[in-house]
Amino acid sequence: MEIKKIKTIDIIKEKRTVSAEAKQNHKEYNKIKKLILKSLESEAKTIPQIAGETKLPPDVVTFYLMTLRKYGSIETGEIDDMDEYFSYKLKK
Amino acid sequence: MEQQNELSFDTLVIGGGIAGSEAAINLANLNYKVILVEKDLSLGGKMIHLSKVFPTLDCSACITTPKVSETIRHPNITIYTYSEVKNIVKVSEKKFTATLVKKPRYVDEDLCTGCQECEDKCPVVVKDQFQYDLVGRKAVYVPFSIANPRVVNIDIENCILCGLCEKVCPVDAIDFTQEAVDIPLTVKSVIIATGYELFDPTQILRYGFGKFKNVVTAMQMERQLVPTRPYNSVLRPKDGKMPDNIAYILCTGSRDETVGNPICSQICCMYSVKQAQLLLGALPMADVSIYCMDIRAFGKGFCEFYQQAIGMGVEFHKGKVAKITEKENGNLILRYEDIEEGKIKEVEHDLVVLSIGVLPNPDAKLLFNNPVIESDEFNYIKQIDELLCPPETNIEGVYVAGTSSGPMDIPDSILSAGAASACSANYIRN
Ligand SMILES: Cc1cc2nc3c(=O)[nH]c(=O)nc-3n(C[C@H](O)[C@H](O)[C@H](O)COP(=O)(O)OP(=O)(O)OC[C@H]3O[C@@H](n4cnc5c(N)ncnc54)[C@H](O)[C@@H]3O)c2cc1C
Ligand code: SF4
Ligand code: SF4
To answer: B89 partner at 20 to 30 Å CA-CA among B6, B41, B172, B183?
Structure first.
């Protein structure tokens, strides 16, 4: 008979509670992630374009977009004619 | 807290930066048994995060990683990362006792392969301290790509206890039952290599760091200049624009009584000259200006390195920046006194780098219980005979290596670690 392995997460859950700040941060990230990914569904965009469309501050878009790029959901596209802004697109 | 059996070594090296690694390897090569305790998740100190080094422009990671591997592989060196020592007491000649505290990573380091499957699935994102907050990381994370040991850590404060990491780990390495462990320690000598801290530029409100997103620190710029950079290129954090007119403000938090650090940090002039040259390589169309009181190019090849920067087109302006204001487009207006012309000027740049200074690490003083370790007037570990035996501290058998005793560059840190290891060997042997 197979013995059911105890998950250590269940043990720590009995001792620790998740802080309100950690919960809020997680909610915030999910919200921003959805907005950025949705904005890129139609076409590749620059950070100011995404910020304009989602109404998120551009520095917030930079931070989360670069994080999504780091974890492989987004890739870098072309740079514009003025050599100023790169566009970013969803990774297929 | 769990207790473990006592450990015994010849030398305890505290701090696994370049100075600590060098000191440990030297002693281990002489057949002494060394315990190296590093507070952070990886060995390598600040150096492992740098781009290239002045004045040779050698790749910093390419020099640090073999040194770190040599330290880890050495049969005479036992390493504890994510650990600290406390309560060091000199019991008698050649006998120090201490407590080693091993903090929980919530992962079995022997099982974890660093595959990052858990990191991929973790739903939490927070600021990545190893990219100096420019990008995010997960709550379960490999510290950085060349970290050693390359195993994950769980940031329990930000973890939402969803259990996904444990569910997906192919080798069952996640272990939420881990707790801090106290291990009693006995050694014959101690080397302090706890390094330096960086000046926090939010202390200088008029530079707007934190508020103006296109004002960054030199350490953030180091990260932007490495292949494992947080962005796809050198970009402005505010809006992802490629900068083309960059300013450096030297002596940010150094030679400044108003922030309590009157001394020169010794490295900022040269790392700024280095970064300016690297930026001109990365962004060939960009202009780079350096605002300074003067340039201190005192080391071998430093003056030539400075001249090389001038030759490449880096502009040097003599003057201290009084204030930065931000325009709507994220550009920054620097108000400064041009000392040579005796005029107040305002100039516009699209990215400002603060060449932040070096501060003493206050940790070092807290490690010792009896006797206490003395510090100098600037709060670095006091060298009791700076001219004849620089590594000596007020406690016989305790030596200081690298930037724990004051600001210095990498070659000087290595040299000082060599001296500390020689003193330590001498003390144990005699
Ligand atoms: C932006 C920038 C660029 C630079 N560029 C160059 C360059 O191009 N060339 C050059 O020569 N130098 C450069 N430097 C300087 C260089 O970083 C230092 O000379 C060198 O890192 C000093 O090494 P260290 O081992 O003394 O200290 P650190 O690198 O600070 O290492 C200290 C180690 O001790 C650990 N530690 C701290 N407290 C404890 C504790 N209580 N217990 C256990 N461990 C502890 C730390 O986590 C760290 O790993 C630069 C510095 C900066 C800020
Ligand atoms: S904990 Fe498991 S899943 Fe995570 S990196 Fe280590 S081996 Fe991979
Ligand atoms: S339990 Fe914590 S670390 Fe693991 S996946 Fe969930 S949030 Fe991330």
So the answer is: B41
